[in-house]
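Hi L.,

You mentioned the student needs an example of a multi-chain input paired with its predicted structure. This one should do, with 281 residues in total across all chains.
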Amino acid sequence: MPELPEVEIIRRGLAKRIIGDSITAIDIKVPKMFRGDPKAILHTPIIDVRRIAKVMIIDFANGQSLLIHFKMTGQLIYVKAGDVAIGGHPEKVYEQPLPHKHTHIIYHLKDTATLYYNDLRKFGWHWVVSTTKAAEMLGAEFAGVDVISPGFTLTFLENFLQSRPNRPIKEAIMEQRFIAGLGNIYAAEALWQAKVRPDRKVKSLKDNEIAALYKGIKHVIDLSLKYGGSSFNSYVDAAGKQGAFLKYAEVYKRSKDSLGHQIERIKQGGRTTHFCPVCQK
DNA sequence: GGAAATGTTATTGT
DNA sequence: AACAATAACATTTC
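Structure written out for the whole complex:
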């Protein structure tokens, strides 16, 4: 999925457009991606668009909710005459008339608008559950403290890290069940900001390094929200503004950082980590 | 042909 | 049992 700031931006764009509207029909082309009863959310007004961690939640007046997880390559596109909002993973194959080969679920809205869900890898899912049970159904994996919520404080980070002394720092801050929303890109960027190597063990970090990391996380998330919330430039709002966070990335997919240092790539927990061996100690 | 891709999630191992 | 490491998911691009 897009990472958290991106989901947040999609949420805002969607909330502006679909609250008050309702769904008249749903085309499900890949049944395994849809859980629950699609009929349960038809012809009932949309009253809210929320987010838990990286999960989008659309609440309906009849007490049902639609949960959408984008995973790595999901994309949600709102189309109405003269208004297009796109959010999610950008791919060349997505740049063609909708619906296309990778459009798996289509929501038809009463207000002559259409929501297209595209997903190249089909990792994402859509799930209809009752609103009161949404958080419970998502479970502990999604109960982490949201990085853009007031609960994400320096004290929280310190306490959490204390419980994980032997983990590499990058893997620790990517544990979604404790910290919701830091994905592979932002974790790497935050560590660059903090000048801490991603493979350092948590217990080797000094207090001031943890404080720098906390600031780095905040900075990177704020920057991303500011520049369109998109880790890639796939988001277009009604005014045609594109998200462009990656232009400001220091290490992710870069060969050099802004100081001209060569970026190294290593493997951590099955994911590629980018870092600068000169800046990060 | 091989590797990697923004993320979970299921399975296996300790 | 709890936790950590690994494979799996599906498809495209480099």
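You could point out the following to them. The helical segments of chain A are 4-18, 134-138, 154-162, 169-173, 184-194, 207-226. Residues 1-3, 6, 54, 69-73, 88-89, 120-121, 123-124, 141, 176, 183-186, 231-232, 252, 271-272 of chain A lie near DNA strand B (CB under 10 Å from a C1').

Best wishes,
N.
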